Amino acid sequence: MESSSSQLDNPPERVSNRLAELIGALIALMTLTIPVVAIAYFSSSSLQVLPPPGYSAPMMTRP
User: Fold this and answer.
1) Is the pLDDT at 30 greater than 90, yes or no?
2) Distances from the Cα of 54 to the Cαs of 47, 48, 49, 61, in angstroms?
3) Backbone φ, ψ for residue 61 (5° rounding)
4) What is the pTM of this model?
5) Where are the domains of the chain?
């Protein structure tokens, strides 16, 4: 009966703490990297900037 009382003295809290720390680290890593990747993906240099409606750009003439 002493062996069952010794098991109660050391509950398996460390394993769950390690798992929680790992999950927290993964969430933190994703929180930091996903916005940077999304900004880099959606901000391409091939975007065409159009003037607002009703705006006419001045015409350039050659001398």
Assistant:
1) yes
2) 21, 17, 15, 22
3) -115, 145
4) 0.47
5) 13-42
